[in-house]
Amino acid sequence: MTIDLHHLRHFVAVAEELHFGRAAARLHMAQPPLSQSIKRLEAELGFPLFLRTQRRVELTPAGQVFLTEARRTLQQMDEGVRMARRAASEDLAEITVTFTSAALYRVLPAALRAHRQRFPTVDIRLDERPTDAQLAGLQDDSVDVGFVTPPLKAVSGLQIEVVDRDRFCLAVPVSSPLANRNSIGLAELSEESFVLFPHVQGPSLHGRLVSACRQAGFVPRVRQEARQMHTILSLVAADLGVAFIPEGARSMQVNGVAMVPLAGMPDDLTWDLAMVWKPRGARRALVAFLQTVTSLPPS
């Protein structure tokens, strides 16, 4: 006998119900064939999966371990079938798009609206992930395209294109005298406390921001670190400091925060958003989405 998916599905149903009658009903089959299927599976494995009495059914220790692995196997198979169907037929047009929060400021909402108008039947699955998790998904083909903050570590087989460049402005508490300014010079911030994203989240951009401050004559005093833009703005609203944010984040409109233009920032210091994908074997549905993004009018 060879263990097949039917045996695994039968086993998982009984293990989750701990009752052969309920498991048989769930599987839309009679109880005797289900009992025989479990017995054949145990015989093939060489150890019992269940402890059976007249009143109850329990998993053995070996059965508990086997349940975890059986679930994993079935999930992988179901995902494999989904991905194969998607690859086999453009009629099942579906693309998986991952993104960091910065994509939500302008580019991604505009791209989704435009693409829905062009291809109303295409199903777009969205998933917010950090950059490293997006790259892993692109490598294992569970993700079609990601929106990330460059630069990226060298990853073979992927193509990257910058789709948006945003100037920086300054988020300040509305209680601050700076909130009423038409613009603020970078050198004027030497006495301010800052809320900043951690260095590990974006080493290159973090380093360039600190370098710009040094060139303006001071080292920024980072009072609090936060990863998500909404968290950063909420901490600014709580009067914990000021923050460098991309102009696009103005759309978030957090109470207690004023956005003020910055003067004196290096011209090439921008908050960039890039699109990354695997060009080899790209399906028509993905190519069409890439074209939608690159044809968006400048923000």
Automatic annotation (TrEMBL):
| Signal peptide range in chain numbering | none
What GO cellular component term, any one, is given? protein-DNA complex
| Record-annotated membrane-spanning stretches | none
Gene3D superfamilies, per database record: Periplasmic binding protein-like II, Winged helix-like DNA-binding domain superfamily/Winged helix DNA-binding domain
> What keyword terms does UniProt attach to this protein?
DNA-binding, Transcription, Transcription regulation
What role is this protein assigned?
Answer: Transcriptional regulator of the ttuABCDE tartrate utilization operon.
Q: Which family does it belong to?
A: Belongs to the LysR transcriptional regulatory family.
Its protein name is: HTH-type transcriptional regulator TtuA
Its lineage opens with: Bacteria, Pseudomonadati, Pseudomonadota, Alphaproteobacteria, Hyphomicrobiales
